[in-house]
UniProtKB/TrEMBL annotation:
One of its GO terms (cellular component) is endoplasmic reticulum membrane. The keyword Endoplasmic reticulum applies. The keyword Iron-sulfur does not apply. GO terms for biological process: lipid droplet formation; lipid metabolic process. The chain crosses the membrane at residues 15-36, 141-159, 214-240. It is found in: Endoplasmic reticulum membrane. Keywords: Endoplasmic reticulum, Lipid metabolism, Membrane, Transmembrane, Transmembrane helix. It is a multi-pass membrane protein. This is Seipin.
Amino acid sequence: MGYIMPKHPIQTSSLLLGFAVFSVVSLLLWLATFLYGSFYYSYMPKATFSAPVHYYYRTNCESSTSFLCSYPVANISLMRNKKHVLTFGQAYRISLQLEMPESPANQELGMFMIRTTCFSRDGGHVASSARSSMLRYRSNLLRNLGTMLFLPAFLTGVTEQKQVLEVELFSDYTDDPYAPSDTAVIEILSSKVQIYSSELYIHAHFTGLRYLLFYFPVISALVGVSSNFIFLSVLFVFSYMRLLLRIEWKPEQVRGGQDNTQLTAHSILSLAAVHECV
């Protein structure tokens, strides 16, 4: 029959101490990560936002010479899930992307104006801009050479004879906190323009701390989590030391209180004896 050596109490206590230290460190690290993540998602706004632009116009013309009675107009909502897309105090770059065919009508159109107006919830005017744009010029020879070169792609539908224009509507737009923008109205001031599709893009222009958090996310996360972990660790150590000191000093304070009580009783008896002698 073999002899089984019992575990030494020191080894058991070391295992328990190591497990306790590991649990505390894991808890503090999880709390530090949670605090940084909460701060990041509450402080950082959405970097980009895009929405399709669908134009409409009136066709009930009194004159038979023109089919379109108004300029193409589009309403874009700046709300998502009942929340504002734009963050107060944050600068944004707002641009419009136009996909236009290289048709004779667009070539003859030349320059055209794009007017953008932002409105608040109650219909108040918040901001407006007017920008011009036009198709890139290409000579007849260049267009013919391009058509001959990409003829198989044109025939199979892989590519099309079109141009994509990007028009900057606002270069540094900041939303008003007292009258936030709810909708944006885009109007193209030409009834002859031809458009395949259109898209509105909003890009946040980060500066300061938001710039570091967005463009250096790994370094920012390491610094933020480390700072939170150090702060929580120091707070935990001080709290633990205070608890230990309170437990160690409590018996001595009780003993000191008993000594003081005995000394007070002895003093009272001595004074009484002196009074009787007198």
